[in-house]
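Reviewer 2 asked us to include a model.

Predict the structure of this chain.
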Amino acid sequence: MSRINRARIVDGDQTTAASLNDRFDDFTQANEVDQFNLRDSAVDLPQFKKSPKFQAPFVQTDVLGKSDMLHAAPVSVGATGSTPYSSPHIIQDGAANPTIASYGASGLSIGTSDVLRIYWSLSVRADLTNSPWDDGFQFNVIAGTGGGGNLNVSTSAGCFVAWLQWDITSNGLTNWTEVPGQGDFKTAVDAYHGNTLQNCQATTVIPLWSYWLRNLNNGDSSAGTTAETKAAGWRGISGAWHYRPPGSRTIFGLRVVLLGVMHPRRATAGSANALVLDIGPAADVDLEYTGGRLVTFVNKVL
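Predicted model (C-alpha cells):
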C-alpha cells in the first residue's frame, strides 16, 4: 500500500483554504472513490470481506437474558445460601427458558488454525435489603478510639460472578461444563468454596455495593462517624473469553451462568488469591438482570 510522507502541522501554520489545498496536492485519485477503491482497499477491512480468503469464517449473535429495555420486569436471582452450592443460575428470558448459543445438529467445529472469541453482555442491578455488607466476611473490624467502640467496615468487595460454560458432547445440550481455564467455584479454599483467580479466565465480576464512612477523624469513632452504603444500580457488564484449541474441537452450545455472593479470599499467607462463596449475606441479596448479547466469533490464524 502506498504511503504519503508529509511534514506535520506546527504552531504558526495558516489554516486557510489556499494552505490546505497546497498541503494536500500530493494526493490524486485517478479512479472513482467507491467501494472497491476506498472501503475494500482500506487497512483494517479486507479480512472481513466474505470470500475464500475471509479471515473470520463464523460470526453468530444470540440474545442473552430478557429483552426489557426499560427494566419493567427484570429477572431476579437470589444469592446462594449453601456451600458448596448445588447449581448456578442459568441466564434466562424471564419465562424460565435458558438463553444460550446453539450451533445446530453438527455443532461448530474449530481446529488449531482457529481462535474462538466469545463476548457477552448483560444489564444488571443489585437489590439489597437490611445490611448484607455487615454479614458473613464482607467486613473488617476496625478498632475505634476516643470511646467510640469498634467499627465493622465493609470491604465493598461483595459480588456476583458470571461465567461461561459449553457443551462439547452433543446437540442435546445436556452436558454442560466449564470452558478451559474456568473453574466451577466448588474448589475448597480454606473452609470455603470457590476458584483461585487463575481459574477465573472466563469470569465477569459484578460488584454489588459501595460503602464509605463520614466524619472519621484519625480513627476516632466517637465523633459522629456514620457509615453509608449505595447499592449498585442498573449498568452494563461484559465479559470475554478467547480460546485456541490444541486439536480439533466441536462445540454444540455455550451459555452464561450466575452465582453469588462472592468475596476475595486467600487460604494462607503466600497462597493464591481466590474468589469464594460467602453464604452469610445470602438472605439479603438479589441480583436483577434484563438483556444482553452472547457473540461467537471465529478468527483464522494463518
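The chain has one domain: 56-300. The chain has a mean pLDDT of 86. We have added this to the supplementary material.
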